[in-house]
Specification:
about 40% helix; globular; six-stranded antiparallel β-sheet
């Protein structure tokens, strides 16, 4: 039975934690695990909400869209993702070590939201410098709410990688998405009745970070958002043991 996201309590958190680990077990790549995680979370928070019921949109649940991203070096992206990042950079030339916030998994109301390769604007978001990251307010705020400096995410040092090993898991929370400067896509917010946005994530062995984003049709309180700090640990457990050559599924490359 789907869980009511607005009243996500301790019991629901524990049940979600176990089920999420089970959903991701046996994945052959980080991308495969990310797909399974997004599909599970989208299905789990599919309880009918007042806003969704009134809209009559496909899905009609508490959560309209779930996405999972990982920062990844430009040199490790396939040619199609490098072209995508190049287009976003414009006149700026990409360096091999430049990190890109790369979409690994997606699940949502629209058919095109269920395959990362059909994303129009978010397949690989380049992070060439802290100054340019500042121009993407949601990404910049997510990094800050995770308790990280933009410079460390853009160019992780060996010291940063060691330090992150002992850090807790971060939560990004926008309680009121409508009109928020941290959610620039206000047309998306209005069209799909998005009330709150929550993100949760942490670091991987490489020093790259991962972040799961959930766009909800119900208002998520700070207390509920905080419980996803524990779910971030479960996501990390599902992604952590993959090597760098196991990030992308063979078929998707």
């Amino acid at each position: 039975m789907p869980t009511d996201l607005k009243s996500f309590g301790l019991t629901e958190m524990l049940r979600c934690s176990v089920a999420l680990r089970h959903a991701a077990s046996g994945a052959g790549s980080m991308e495969d695990a990310a797909k399974r995680i997004c599909r599970y979370l989208y299905a789990e928070f599919g309880a009918m909400s007042t806003a969704a019921g009134a809209s009559g949109r496909m899905g009609g649940g508490d959560c309209a869209l779930v996405r999972l991203y990982k920062t990844h070096p430009y040199s490790g992206l396939d040619p199609s993702l490098r072209r995508f990042a190049d287009k976003a950079l414009g006149a700026t030339k990409a360096k091999p070590e430049m990190r890109c916030l790369t979409l690994l998994g997606s699940a949502g109301d629209e058919p095109g939201w269920n395959d990362r390769t059909t994303s129009r604007g978010h397949r690989a978001i380049p992070l060439p410098s802290p100054r340019i990251v500042e121009q993407a307010p949601m990404v910049a705020q997510l990094i800050r709410q995770f308790g990280l400096d933009l410079a460390d995410v853009v160019s992780p040092s060996p010291e940063f990688v060691r330090e992150m090993a002992g850090r807790s898991y971060g939560v990004f929370h926008v309680e009121n998405a409508a009109g928020s400067p941290f959610i620039p896509a206000q047309d998306f917010v209005e069209r799909y009745g998005i009330r709150s946005v929550i993100g949760f994530g942490g670091s991987l062995r490489s020093g790259d970070i991962f972040a799961t984003l959930m766009f909800a049709r119900v208002e998520i309180s700070p207390d509920v958002a905080e419980r996803f700090r524990t779910i971030a640990l479960d996501v990390k457990s599902a992604l952590f043991n993959f090597e760098e050559d196991q990030v992308f599924s063979t078929g998707s490359r």
